[in-house]
Amino acid sequence: MLWDISPIAFTISIGALHLPVHWYGLFFSSTFVYGLFVFRYLFRREGRPQDEVYDLVLFVLAGTVIGARLGHVLFYDPVRYLTHPWKIFAVWEGGLASHGAVIGILIAVWLYSRRATDQSFLWVCDRIGVTVPLSGCLIRIGNFFNSEILGRPADVPWAVIFARVDLLPRHPVQLYEAFCYLLIFLIQFRFYLKRGNSVPAGHMFGRFFILVFSTRFVLEFFKESQAAFETGWTISVGQWLSIPAVLVGIYLTWRARQLQRMFGVGWDTEPRRPDSPDA
Q1: What values do phi and psi take at 100, rounded to 5?
Q2: Is position 140 annotated in a ligand binding site?
Q3: What's the 3-state SS for the chain?
Q4: Is residue 279 pLDDT above 70, yes or no?
Q5: Smallest Cα–Cα separation from 242: which of 103, 81, 95?
Q6: Could you report the per-residue pLDDT of 210-221, keeping only the tens digit for each?
Q7: Whole-angstrom Cα distance, residue 244 to residue 106?
Q8: Average pLDDT score over the chain
Q9: Can you give the residue ranges of every domain in the chain?
Q10: What is the pLDDT of residues 214-273, one digit of tens each?
Q11: Residue 138 has what pLDDT?
Q12: What is the pTM of this model?
């Protein structure tokens, strides 16, 4: 398959000003639009004030953009940005890292939960763990349209030639990831609808970390190197960053099961202190 689609979807012209709108930007921004509707559904389903969703989405939007940009700067090309620090703000040149986005989202959710009513950090994170995999799916499709995050050369029948880069048939690893994240979203959403509030806080978020970053670790073997300094490494930067994420996921799910075994707590229930009058 030959892929030679322009990364620019259309151009907005205002007088002498011409602003190109990239496919990646459309897919990236659509994640927040769909996230707004999904979270309104989740809040409505659980009897939460739906107006608070707008604040949550704004926090997550800021955390995603800032975290993803700083993640790329620090994890993938630190030398370039330390020697040219003004380039950090040149987001139109590309460069966003999903691991940095996760860190940014966590910080944003923590800040949001401190001011929200009856919404703990893990309560919000559990629902983030339901919705974010679909965001990953849309973003990887955007990467495919942009002919970036390329797969390794391959001779499989479904290999893609990204004509804007070179003439080598490659694994369409962006689509591999997009499909996997879509499947994880469906698994997570089905689990949420089926189990409701019957699992302790952190369980769904732990599942998200395990499923998403285990998938990321495996699919990195099909990708070209994303950082110049990782040439010759046994595993890539993305894989090194995925390992602690999977371990965090294992801890969160283990903790949730321990709480359920010890206290019989549900998703929205905090464990009672052993010395409390009702314990």
Answers
A1: -65, -35
A2: yes
A3: CEECCCCEEEEEEECCEEEEEEHHHHHHHHHHHHHHHHHHHHHHHCCCCCCHHHHHHHHHHHHHHHHHHHHHHHHCCHHHHHHCHHHHHCHHHCCCCHHHHHHHHHHHHHHHHHHCCCCCHHHHHHHHHHHHHHHHHHHHHHHHHCCCCCECECCCCCCEEECCCCCCEECCHHHHHHHHHHHHHHHHHHHHHHHCCCCCCCHHHHHHHHHHHHHHHHHHHHECCCCHHHCCCCCCHHHHHHHHHHHHHHHHHHHHHHHHHHHCCCCCCCCCCCCCCCC
A4: no
A5: 103
A6: 999 999 999 999
A7: 15
A8: 85
A9: 2-227+235-263
A10: 999 999 999 988 766 666 677 888 888 899 999 999 999 998 888 777 766 554 444 444
A11: 93
A12: 0.82
| Amino acid at the residue 48 | R
- C-alpha–C-alpha distance, residues 59 and 61, integer Å: 5
Q: What's the rounded Cα separation, in Å, for the pair 215 and 221?
A: 11
Q: Which phi and psi angles does 175 have, rounded to 5°?
A: -75, -35
Residue 47, token pair as written in the block: 């009897």
Q: Is the pLDDT of residue 161 over 90?
A: yes
Single-letter amino acid, residue 184: I
Give the closest residue to 36 by CA, choosing from 49, 51, 53: 53
Buried b (16+ CB within 10 A) or exposed e, 58-77: ebbbebbbbbbbbbbbbbbb
Closest-CA residue to 262 (of 253, 272, 275, 252): 272
Burial class (CB in 10 A: 0-12, 13-18, 19+), 108: buried
